[in-house]
């Protein structure tokens, strides 16, 4: 359209003498070959042709409206930047220090743009004769843009500070609108300038940005800062809507229009998956070529000793078990700084699944104490019950059966509530995504219809039942001494299951069974498959409980348990591979 | 389940249309659908959106089943988003599911009222073009259920004139149904007016006006109904009211044609009522016996236990043809084969009389024909000692008739017969004695005596 209108203007350009004019947003002519903007605007010419001033005014009005419908010109990476900005803001509201947003995440993102050749480099990747990107246009003047000193302490202009506003600045200042005419003529289109191209782009060695990847960026920054949020916490906060993720695009500035291919890029219809984000984190870390992360030492939240304590409290197990988990951590070497710290440039880049690992250690300790063969744990419970009846004044012995009964009830209730909440989750955004302008009214009509129906049914719903969302917490269960129906086992003792020998304590139970017999020899990450029915019911229950807490698949936890066992019984593994299932644990 | 859901289901043809619209082939395999879905996404994990919405649907259904209207409404609130599903199959199926579940919730929910239901129906009608007519019809039925005849009629008129989207064959039937329901409503007003008319004196000044009104109504109605009842289906209430109006205006041939067509057209599903209507009509018209017999013969084949069978028997008995006499016996036996008719005294009385008459007429073979297939189970079904006792206690007349039949069929040694015989009854004494004599003479167990 713009090109058509510009055809009336036949003068030569004062700078390059070409006759190739386009129209700017203000209705002024600009030269498409050298981007020189004339002082002449369309209206001036129009008055010559059509003397009727009223028609001219009308024309103008229509044109403006058309522009606002099209919105700004924006690039896909700006969309992701906006989402990252929202997420960082949300993390800040959760109590994470502002450095995460301003320094760490910001630098990671800049580095990503540079590595993927989208900005901060001499020849940005944009193809098909497109001129330098918006980002470079605007930022080429700042001194750090040409030579980014990543992860340095140089104070950067607050590029990410106020996402929406700074972006609107970029766009209003942007002098040359790239004509969208060619795009809207074809059937595939997008609201962003490079949406179509982006969704087709496949370049080897470049990690393409996706919405789940934004969480990988967030997690990397959290890890860098050694914040007290695990990956499972992060993903749970996403699911509970404390961190923008699904429909994050609806908070884009009004003028950033999304449709067509943008739908595939920004529309998300699934919650993030633990393993997926975990993989992406390593991928991004490696791609960014990041140096070794700050050490995870004993006083870090992510250290297994601290995480084990946290999860022991969460699932209402006795504090005394912490000694045993610490012991296992020490024996397996899983508390070592080198083991725990993420180093993307190392030969085999891998990071520890801190939360899964901590939970796996607890499972191993439970197996050491109670064997979990659907037999021993119950007979030990009988002993504990008898002892507790006789000695009511002493510190009670931990009774596995009682714990199981209470946990089972609490777990079932929680899970039921969780399933109900998921079923009620509202996925669709207030801004419907549509494929093309033709679909737009349909999409909006659908949305309006749904909103109206919901409004009608909301009068039938008990208003007290749907009151507000939960405030974010890293604990999902709450156990206190005061609550009488829900016994708190934190203070219970393990005396019933341990015996003294000399100076050290031994577990009464001297047997152990391994979760897996064989590990894959090939390079696949598969350790073992988890076939539920092959395992004891108590083991199943414990895996289900913990994997629910972390919102992961039970098989993933089972795998981690096997890995911990492999480390704990390393010698045994190499010697007695073919021996029977039960093995002695003489470690205490 | 409830009246309303019954109404929602509508006539049989309606449901057939529905499934064929959904799958296109008239068949529906839920397992196949899920299989196809997993193939389509290439074995990838189903999107959480799809998972949660289908979970949401089962929560709605569960809540409805448990009559938890409030919870159902809560889940329904979230389920509306399937209207925006990117999966076009699900998106297209959604309005119908939402309408069915939503209307059920609104029908029972304590906070719901007519107004909310009406708004809901109007909204749902206008989602796409697929469901407008169906929902309009069901909406009208809902209004009827609440006695809002005027609104129902207005609704149907609106639906009738609605023209959008493609004209499919299923739509044609729906339009016909809508018109027919409109006709039925007009019939209702007409018949009320007719009642008024019958109460008025002919000389009453209002008589003419009302009569005129009655007349005006009728032709509109007949036009509305007649289109529908030409399509194969079960249209009992429509046919009945249509015929009533035709008869009222003296169009007997027209009425007979409609009824004959309804009963005899092979494209129509087998429907006993069609034959009953036709028979009743013929009876009113005092049609020849042979004609009525041929109608009831078909009814006899479909429903041998129908109460009209006794009338049928009478007709057959009065007939001159011998084969009709044999059929008359068959019909009586047929009626008494059914547990619901075991205490029907008329049937027993007819059988007793007719058995005796047949045997007297030397048609032992006819009786044996009928009896052979029943002698294994009738004795315990009708003539046990238990029945003898309870029948005597409840209804001595019935017991007598049954005893007579038992005696004829099983001989004087049969328990039922002996039990009744032993009872000493003042009034029935004579009758029993007569019965004893007849049994001795005609009982099929000892045929020698009859000669």
UniProtKB/TrEMBL annotation, chain A:
Q: Which UniProt keywords apply?
A: DNA-binding, Metal-binding, Nucleus, Transcription, Transcription regulation, Zinc, Zinc-finger
Q: Where in the cell is it found?
A: Nucleus, Nucleolus
A single GO CC term for this protein reads:
RNA polymerase I core factor complex
What stretches pass through the bilayer? none
- Does Phosphoprotein appear among the keywords? no
Q: Does the keyword RNA-binding apply?
A: no
Q: Name one GO biological process term.
A: nucleolar large rRNA transcription by RNA polymerase I
Residue span(s) of domain RRN7-type:
7-39
Pfam family example for this protein?
Rrn7_cyclin_N
**Main site of residence?**
nucleus
- Please give the superkingdom of this protein's source: Eukaryota
The Rrn7/TAF1B N-terminal cyclin domain covers: 207-253
The residue ranges of the Rrn7/TAF1B C-terminal cyclin domain are 270-460
MF (Gene Ontology)? RNA polymerase I core promoter sequence-specific DNA binding; zinc ion binding
* Family stated for the protein in its record: Belongs to the RRN7/TAF1B family.
What does the protein in this record do?
A: Component of RNA polymerase I core factor complex that acts as a GTF2B/TFIIB-like factor and plays a key role in multiple steps during transcription initiation such as pre-initiation complex (PIC) assembly and postpolymerase recruitment events in polymerase I (Pol I) transcription. Binds rDNA promoters and plays a role in Pol I recruitment as a component of the SL1/TIF-IB complex and, possibly, directly through its interaction with RRN3.
Could you tell me what this protein is called?
A: TATA box-binding protein-associated factor RNA polymerase I subunit B
Q: Could you read off the lineage of the organism from its UniProt record? A: Eukaryota, Metazoa, Chordata, Craniata, Vertebrata
From TrEMBL, chain B:
Question: Where found in the cell?
Answer: Nucleus, Nucleolus
Is Transcription regulation one of the keywords UniProt gives this record? yes
Q: Which InterPro entries match?
A: RNA_pol_I_TAF1A/TAFI48_chr, SL1/TIF-IB_Component, TAF1A
The keyword Nuclease is assigned to this record: no
Annotated GO biological processes are: transcription by RNA polymerase I
UniProt entry keywords in alphabetical sequence: DNA-binding, Nucleus, Transcription, Transcription regulation
A single GO molecular function, which one?
A: DNA binding
Give GO cellular component annotations, separated by semicolons.
Answer: RNA polymerase I transcription regulator complex
- One Pfam family, short name please? TAF1_subA
Looking at the record's lineage, which domain of life comes first?
Eukaryota
Assembly description: Component of the transcription factor SL1/TIF-IB complex, composed of TBP and at least TAF1A, TAF1B, TAF1C and TAF1D. In the complex interacts directly with TBP, TAF1A and TAF1B. Interaction of the SL1/TIF-IB subunits with TBP excludes interaction of TBP with the transcription factor IID (TFIID) subunits.
Role played: Component of the transcription factor SL1/TIF-IB complex, which is involved in the assembly of the PIC (pre-initiation complex) during RNA polymerase I-dependent transcription. The rate of PIC formation probably is primarily dependent on the rate of association of SL1/TIF-IB with the rDNA promoter. SL1/TIF-IB is involved in stabilization of nucleolar transcription factor 1/UBTF on rDNA. Formation of SL1/TIF-IB excludes the association of TBP with TFIID subunits.
Protein's recorded name? TATA box-binding protein-associated factor RNA polymerase I subunit A
Species assigned in the record: Theropithecus gelada
Gene name of this polypeptide? TAF1A
